[in-house]
Amino acid sequence: MKFIIITKKQIMLAIAGLLALTGVVAGSVSAFAGTDRKLPIYCVETDKKQVAISFDAAWGNDDTQTLIDILAEYDVPATFFVVGSWVDKYPESVKALADAGHQIQNHSNTHPHMPQLSKEQMINEIESCNSKIEAITGVCPTLHRPPYGDYDNMLVSTLEEMGMYTIQWSVDSLDWKDTSTADSICDRVLKKVCPGSIVLFHNDADNTPAALPEILECLKNDGYEFVFISDLILKENYTIDHTGKQCKINS
């Protein structure tokens, strides 16, 4: 008789991934349902061959240094969205990421479903995480990625009032799935990346370190420039269409 051993890390990543997919679908459907729906930024319209690589860090930390080493080897800057409780557990990794030249951005303080919170609670989640990151890096985050990809109008508006941008993703590596091999992660990402894409990985998914080198090498060979999300997005004179694509308004 064969037994399948499922680790805690696999369970947590699977839950996060499934809920993220639910959040993306819900957001997309709602966007069609009413013109007053506020959307996060999923990708950016651009004629430049630029792509932004991002990682979410919420629980484990086994692979963070390996990812830093791989990104350094290919000279690729990445955006890491970290949870405040993860910062509490792994401050040395936050510092290592910052020292390596990567951007550390906000993924909430305790990883809740943000739309279930009051505005005051949302602000507390965001400000608490910002403070923890700034205490280590000296830089206050300007971007927030909602846990589970779960957002509503109040969250997007609250972040706008705080001078921050709500960020999702347009290319999901699905690296959290048990069935995702290094090859399938590579194939999925490389087929979907286009100019202005924001790619989602996780810092503690089993096969991401094995998949990442080929992805970076292929995109570099295809002429892509890797940029931080904060440098990819537009800061003024823009609109966000029903797909979540940020587009420049021609004056």
Mean pLDDT: 90
Q: What portion of residues is helical? A: 40-55%
Query: Helix tally?
Result: 9
- State the total count of DSSP E strands: 11
Mind explaining what this structure looks like?
The chain has 251 residues and is an alpha/beta fold. It has one domain (8-246): Alpha-Beta Barrel (TIM Barrel). 43% of the residues lie in helices and 16% in strands. The chain has nine helices and eleven strands. The chain has helices at residues 8-33, 64-73, 84-89, 91-99, 119-137, 153-161, 182-192, 208-221, 229-232; strands at residues 43-44, 50-57, 78-82, 103-106, 143-144, 165-166, 171-172, 197-202, 225-226, 238-240, 245-248. Helix 2 runs parallel beside helix 8 and helix 7 (182-192) runs parallel beside helix 8. The radius of gyration is 17 Å and the shape is globular. It starts with 7 loop residues before the first helix and ends with a strand.
What structural keywords apply?
TIM Barrel, 251 residues, 11 strands, three-stranded mixed sheet, alpha/beta
Summary?
The protein is α/β, with parallel strands linked by helices and about 250 residues long.
Describe the SSE topology.
Blueprint: H1 8-33, E1 43-44, E2 50-57, H2 64-73, E3 78-82, H3 84-89, H4 91-99, E4 103-106, H5 119-137, E5 143-144, H6 153-161, E6 165-166, E7 171-172, H7 182-192, E8 197-202, H8 208-221, E9 225-226, H9 229-232, E10 238-240, E11 245-248
Parallel strand pairs: 1-11, 2-3, 2-8, 2-9, 3-4, 5-6, 7-8
Antiparallel strand pairs: 10-11
